Amino acid sequence: MIYTVTFNPAIDYVVRTGDMKTGEVNRALSEEIFFGGKGINVSVVLGELGVKSKALGFVAGFTGAAIEEGITRAGVEADFVHLKKGFSRINVKIKSSAETELNGKGPDISQEELDMLFCKLEELKDGDTLVLAGSIPSSLPEDIYEKIMARLSDRRIRTAVDASGELLLNVLKYRPFVVKPNKSELSATLGREITTVEQVAEGAEELRKRGAVNVLVSMAGDGAVLVDEHGRVHVCGVCRGCVRNSVGAGDSMLAGFLAGCDEGYDHALRLGTAAGGATAFSDGLACREDIMKLYSTFE
Questions:
Q1: Per-10-residue mean pLDDT for the chain, 299 residues long?
Q2: 290 labelled catalytic
Q3: What per-residue confidence (pLDDT) applies to 20?
């Protein structure tokens, strides 16, 4: 079983307008609502690829109830901790001549409620996979990823971490099965400019030597690079299509990789790249049909 953790789920309210004028009333041309957060996005795309997962994390208030109902309707099994105070955040994404985002803060999480999450994590067994992705709310300790991985370190659990900077570097000692920074995050994490595929591969190998088993790096319009557990470098070109959406593409890539890695790393990288591309070319998260169409272009 794959478990995903989303500490701060959100309702994404996407509004398309004409030219935005600040200080004036602007009217929407169209609007959509999506339920997400990085871990939830991974769970949704895994479901599209026929892989079951369970979404863990925290929800609160009427917005939290809507998130839980929405992802359950999408076929994702949810087992959230329900917070006593506050409400899950709403992110407003305005798409006009330029994209503007206003992301909500989200509710505070108490120690008692955090302990409830740890109780749910006790369900994990040898052979399960745990996905830790996304930002950490200010009410939680900054080393929460480390605390979780340390607590599970006596079990044979595969962990996937989508993070950057110190948050990523500090978990490498627990040998995560895969880490997935993008190219700019890899550059910021290692403190040097990284532009070419060769530099990406070198940076990924550095993270692998520090403890990561596999390092998957998305490079937007330049495709993706995987340095696998044996130190082999795999490169996949970019999918071709019209980019409509940047939200969730990296999460989709991670989902595709996890869905495909038992069939070999070349397959996993291609499936991940196809899933990321399918989301980028859609208004929401990728569907299976679009993923497989893009995957077939690599064959």
A1: 95 90 89 91 96 96 96 93 95 86 92 96 94 88 92 93 89 95 92 91 96 93 90 90 80 96 94 93 89 87
A2: no
A3: 85
Q: Catalytic pick from 162, 228, 251, 290? A: 251
What's the pTM?
0.92
The DSSP secondary structure of the chain, one letter per residue, reads -EEEEESS-EEEEEEEESS--TTS---EEEEEEEEE-HHHHHHHHHHHTT--EEEEEEE-HHHHHHHHHHHHHTT-EE--EE-SSS--EEEEEEESSSEEEE--------HHHHHHHHHHHTT--TT-EEEEES---TTS-TTHHHHHHHHTTTS--EEEEE--HHHHHTTGGG--SEE--BHHHHHHHHTS---SHHHHHHHHHHHHHHT-SEEEEE-GGG-EEEE-TTS-EEEEPPPPS-----TTHHHHHHHHHHHHGGG-HHHHHHHHHHHHHHHHTSSSSPPHHHHHHHHHTT-
